């Protein structure tokens, strides 16, 4: 069957679409999405991947034909949106290759969003407007920016971070491959952390976009933090260990029960392994102090350390000496937390292990 014939057949039954999940060229995508939303009242999930990455429009927010059942949206395409009516049922959104200005256009129509994943790319040269985007139900936000991305994008990304209001954010994953000297994005992340300091429970930062000490000082301001992931090289810094694993009261992050060491460049060398024992002993001392003072009940089940596969064999040598610490390799950790931290939303956009 020719592609044109197949597309015609699909369009003919658009009224029955509940899931649209396609990887096509730009022309074919335009043909399929041209019937959205006025002929697709039953749509619950959209995932479109444009193999050509050429610009096209997606009319999701047409007020005369609202997509009342649409809950999941994943776009891997250079797409623009028309303004219109918000979609109160939209819960999960993933953007890959969508311009920052178009991301803002879409987010302003998603008042009930719960999980958001963005792989930043920019196509336009226009500035990001200063505006307030309220996402009161957002629980999870993951953002990534490739190393080879133009540094000129950073001001747009920083403004988007300043625009969003996420009063109930619980999980934040950041992978911005930027040097500490390029401070725009790090300042934006810091400001966001200050706004969610009383709600954030899970924080992953994948790269050394800040200095180690700045990172440590940020983390110690998150009193509800339960899970922390950071590059292993950060823990080479004694000041960082002192910030996060302070062994005197008041203790930062009293609810912290899990830390993950992210394998960075050079991990697997003797130096990277040698930083693990001081980290473990600092954790054990911290646990002993918390238990002695009975400041928190959350450590009754012990503390969990998550490491990359090669390091898992190394840390298990310490299992008998540190009975309060459990060790997990990465695959085991991810499988245990697929229901909340590692859902399928935006999995392809967040191409990190």
TrEMBL record:
InterPro entries given in the database record: LRR_dom_sf
Name of the protein this chain belongs to: F-box domain-containing protein
Organism, by scientific name, is Rickenella mellea
Q: What is the lineage of its organism?
A: Eukaryota, Fungi, Dikarya, Basidiomycota, Agaricomycotina
């Amino acid at each position: 069957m020719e592609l044109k014939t197949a597309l015609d057949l699909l369009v003919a039954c658009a009224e029955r679409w509940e899931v649209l999940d396609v990887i096509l060229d730009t022309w074919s995508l335009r043909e399929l999405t041209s019937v959205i939303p006025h002929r697709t009242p039953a749509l619950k999930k959209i995932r479109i991947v444009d193999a050509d990455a050429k610009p096209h429009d997606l009319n999701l927010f047409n007020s005369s034909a609202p997509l009342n059942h649409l809950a999941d949206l994943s776009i891997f395409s250079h797409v623009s949106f028309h303004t219109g009516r918000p979609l109160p049922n939209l819960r999960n959104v993933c953007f890959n290759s969508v311009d920052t200005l178009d991301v803002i256009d879409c987010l302003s129509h998603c008042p009930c969003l719960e999980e958001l994943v963005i792989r930043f790319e920019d196509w336009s040269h226009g500035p990001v407007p200063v505006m307030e985007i309220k996402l009161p139900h957002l629980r999870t936000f993951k953002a990534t920016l490739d190393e080879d991305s133009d540094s000129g994008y950073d001001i747009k990304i920083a403004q988007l971070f300043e625009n969003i209001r996420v009063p109930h954010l619980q999980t934040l994953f950041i992978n911005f491959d930027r040097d500490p000297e390029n401070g725009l994005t790090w300042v934006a992340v810091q400001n966001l952390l200050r706004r969610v300091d009383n709600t954030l429970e899970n924080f992953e930062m994948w790269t050394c976009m800040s200095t180690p000490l700045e990172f440590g000082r940020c983390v110690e301001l998150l009193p509800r933090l339960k899970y922390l992931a950071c590059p292993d090289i950060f823990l080479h810094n004694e000041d960082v260990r002192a910030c996060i694993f302070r062994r005197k009261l008041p203790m930062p992050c009293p609810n912290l029960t899990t830390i993950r060491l992210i394998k960075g460049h050079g991990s697997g060398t003797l130096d990277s392994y040698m930083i693990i024992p001081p980290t473990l002993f600092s954790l054990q001392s911290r646990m002993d102090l918390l238990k002695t003072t009975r400041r928190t009940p959350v450590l009754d089940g012990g503390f969990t350390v998550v490491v990359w596969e090669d390091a898992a064999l190394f840390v298990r040598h310490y299992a008998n000496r540190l009975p309060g610490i459990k060790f997990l390799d990465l695959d085991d950790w991810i499988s245990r937390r697929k229901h909340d931290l590692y859902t399928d939303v935006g999995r392809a956009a967040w191409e990190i292990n």
